[in-house]
Structure formats: C-alpha cells, structure tokens
Design goal:
1 helix; elongated
C-alpha cells in the first residue's frame, strides 16, 4: 500500500530510476558491462539511438557515437567524440 511509511528515497528519484531501467541498453561485444551512454544518446535529426564506434589511427584508438541510419534517412552525419 502506498504512503504507509516514510519513503527512503523521493518519488522523483524513484521515477527516474524506473525510466532508466526501461532504456534499451545492451552489453558491449565481449564485455560484461554496459557503455556509459548506451541507450541514452539520440540523433537530433531522425530520433534513432546512436551507436558507439572505434577508429584506429596511428596506433591509437578513438571512440565516437554516430547515427547508424546515415544515408538511409538521416539528414546529416552526426559524430560525437567519446572523450569530448
């Protein structure tokens, strides 16, 4: 029953956690944890979820989030550098 005892956390915090639990997240390939922005970054143009991509350049790896729809429906290419 609701409101039968004092709340441990606020209703706002409870609702926030419930919405986070509903996000479409998945673990990274060959990893046991979820990437920090998994399921959170949304393309501003088409509304699809952005995907994490790694690019190797001069013996160093760089990570970006990009819109996977690309030429299939997105009006521009969005790339966000992970460490920016």
């Amino acid at each position: 029953m609701e409101n039968t005892h004092e709340a441990i956390i606020s209703k706002q915090e409870f609702d926030l956690v419930q919405s986070i639990l509903l996000l479409d997240t998945k673990t990274a390939p060959h990893k046991e944890s979820v990437y920090l922005f998994s399921g959170l970054l949304i393309c501003a143009d088409c509304g699809n979820r952005m995907t994490r991509k790694s690019v190797a350049y001069k013996d160093k790896k760089y990570f970006y989030y990009y819109c996977p729809t690309g030429k299939k429906g997105c009006t521009s290419s969005h790339m966000i550098k992970e460490d920016s």
